[in-house]
Specification:
The complex is a heterodimer.
Chain A lengths: L3 E3 L3 E4 L5 E3 L1 E3 L5 E8 L3 E8 L6 E2 L6 E7 L2 E6 L8 E8 L9 E2 L3 E5 L1
Chain B lengths: L2 E3 L4 E5 L4 E3 L2 E3 L6 E7 L6 E7 L7 E2 L2 E6 L4 E6 L8 E8 L3 E3 L3 E6 L1
Parallel strand pairs in B: 2-12
Antiparallel strand pairs in B: 1-4, 3-9, 5-6, 5-10, 7-8, 8-9, 10-11, 10-12
Classes of the chains: A mainly beta, B mainly beta.
Chain lengths: 114, 111
């Protein structure tokens, strides 16, 4: 089974801090994604990556950056955390070998910015 | 941009009964894929069923089936013989170049 692991289930940080959310997948997937999930808004794509050192902006990239130095790891960075970034963050990965491959999700990180 | 609309924020169903969750989408593409995902409370999001747009036959996975109407851009999920473990948030998703998700439908199963 595909395993997508997010480093923390719960995280509490202060306004202005630089926050790192880590995601690792063990299936050699080419594609990795970061979403935030908010009630009534569903999942919104922040950034995605189709290859190592490659990144593309999703629908809501403002206030975030990403890093993909290795194929299995995709990090989401909040440069200067703000209270409106309090949310559930979901990482996902998918294979490039078949274009209809579904995304495999991690357990999510519930981030609170105080 | 593509959009995915789930017009039912909450639904409930009696155990063993059938329920249908609605999803519509907007796209100008002819080749794409549609998915239903399930997210149980505090648990991982998992794939329920997928549909390729070029296939006319509706996908089926055990008690889960879809009604795919390409011309109407509609993709509803039918859950038959509902079980308590079906209680979850259900998300409809579209994939063309990238994934787009709906806002979700919270399904309650009443014993």
């Amino acid at each position: 089974d595909v395993k997508v692991t997010q480093s923390s289930r719960y995280l509490v940080k202060r306004t202005g801090e630089k926050v790192f959310l880590e995601c690792v997948q063990d299936m050699d997937h080419e594609n990795m994604f970061w979403y935030r999930q908010d009630p009534g808004l569903g999942l919104r794509l922040i950034y995605f990556s189709y290859d190592v050192k490659m990144k593309e902006k999703g629908d809501i990239p403002e206030g975030y950056s990403v890093s993909r130095e290795k194929k299995e790891r995709f990090s989401l960075i909040l440069e200067s955390a703000s209270t409106n970034q309090t949310s559930m963050y979901l990482c996902a990965s998918s294979s490039d070998s078949d274009s209809n491959q579904p995304q495999h999700f991690g357990d999510g990180t519930r981030l609170s910015i105080l | 941009a593509q959009t995915v609309t789930q017009s039912q924020p909450e639904m409930s169903v009696q155990e063993a009964e059938t329920v249908t969750l609605s999803c519509t989408y907007d796209t100008s593409e002819s080749d794409y894929y549609l998915f239903w995902y399930k997210q149980p409370p505090s648990r991982q999001m998992i794939l329920v069923i997928r549909q390729e747009a070029y296939k006319q036959q509706n996908a089926t996975e055990n008690r889960f089936s879809v009604n795919f109407q390409k011309a109407a851009k509609s993709f509803s999920l039918k859950i038959s013989d509902s079980q308590l473990g079906d209680a979850a948030m259900y998300f409809c998703a579209y994939f063309g170049y990238q994934f787009y998700f709906g806002t979700g439908t919270s399904l309650t199963v009443i014993p």
